[in-house]
Amino acid sequence: MDAASRVLKQLRAAGEKAGSVNLADVRRYLRACNGDEAAAANALAATLRWRQKERPEKAKCQACSADPRSHNLRIVGVDKKGRPVIYTCFSQAINRSNPAHAMQHLTRTLEDATAMMSSMAARGAEVAENWILVIDFFGYSWLLDTDPRAALFAARLLAHYPERLSRCLLVDAPAVFSGTYSAVRRVLNEGTASKIVFVKSGDALAADVESWASEPLRHWLLAEMEENRQPWSQEGRKLYWQPAAGHDPRGCEDFLRSPEFGLTLTARLATPDAPKAAPDARPPQQAPGTALTASAKPKPASPRKVGERRWPASRGLALWAALPLMWWIPQLLWVLAAGLALHLLCRGEVGETPQKQPKKRRERRPSEREPPAAPPPAPPRVAPRVAQRVDHEHRRETRDRSSWLVWLPCCKLS
Question: Where is composition skewed (Basic and acidic residues) in this entry (predicted)?
């Protein structure tokens, strides 16, 4: 009995409902846990309980049900090895501030990819057991897309799909994304982190896509990224789920002809009973029910250069730095006011007229007292004989001065 069979036996002995689990699923969990059978059994049991509680196979994106332009994450084709390719662009989604809706859409897309691989395996086509994720960061906004909860929720969701991610291509990721990625990197294992690749648009992107994508899929991806950078396709003007002449935004041409395309959310949005985009959001140049094409490109409402972002980086940085201050300053004032009131209450001065108390003179410590004043210096000691002579001379000077005082008026009278 191999390791996968032993793990499956442990699950059934523990009372888990493992009827839908096959040996291929167990082997994926074993690879994710580095061959640890106990850890693989615990992780698989957690996934079974999660699937029983959340029912991801019946997940539905509430935002896309109201407006299909809310998200644009979708399956667009199959690569050389039969792996589904999932693509998304930030500028083409108008609802990016709700992490719960984003997780609903991601769950629906991953379940569609899983059902697609099962369908390909059933008809004998070449198929792999993992997929490729391409994330185009054009239109990324620090104010809208830096919520760490969305990235952490995505990392926890991918834990229920171990060894499903074959490659994650991040195109034109800005420098401000490094903070969010650092937070997500802590919850990712080394195997998953090694599959994430950062690449810039241009020759490096073309070379990377060429290494794993077929020729039609490579042309479609590069054309889709170039079209998503045009001003006429911004602000929800592009309806990716509707067919269009020339470049079809639904996906690669050979994938659209395959039976697996009908299993995707894009195909379900194109049905007659699917929700439609808000009529007031469409430009006047676009007829209702038709997708935008390169030959009928509407002019933007305001002139803007190609590739120019709506929010400059400096303005977004200033606003983002001011938001915490706007919240903390009132809180700090409340804390200071509460502390002052508590201080006065403890002293018994709240509600009473404070009376000025006389200040008590604090006695100085011995070390702080002033040193006693030094006594006056003693007069110099004179010998007795010298003293008598000085006294005699003093008396003689006094007598002479007295004689002048007596004879001076007599001289004036004469």
Answer: 388-401
Q: How much is the pTM? A: 0.67
**159 residue type, one letter:** A
Find how far residue 240's CA is from the centre of its chain. Answer: 28
Last residue of a domain, one of 234, 260, 278: 278
Q: How deeply is 201 buried, as exposed, middle or buried, from its count of CB atoms within 10 A (0-12, 13-18, 19+)? A: middle
Query: Where a domain ends, among 278, 295, 324?
Result: 278
Q: Where are the alpha helices (DSSP H) in 135-249?
A: 142-145, 148-158, 177-185, 190-193, 203-212, 215-228
Residues 96 and 236 in one domain: yes
Q: Which domain holds residue 212?
A: 65-278
Using the Cα atoms of residue 98, residue 104, residue 109 and residue 113 in order, give the sign of their dihedral: positive
| Integer Cα distance of 68 and 64 in angstroms | 4
Residue 236 CA to residue 234 CA, distance in Å, equals 6
Query: What does the pLDDT look like over 132-147, one tens digit per residue?
Result: 999 999 999 887 787 7
Residues 39 and 187 in one domain: no
* Reported confidence tier of residue 223, pLDDT bands at 50, 70, 90: very high
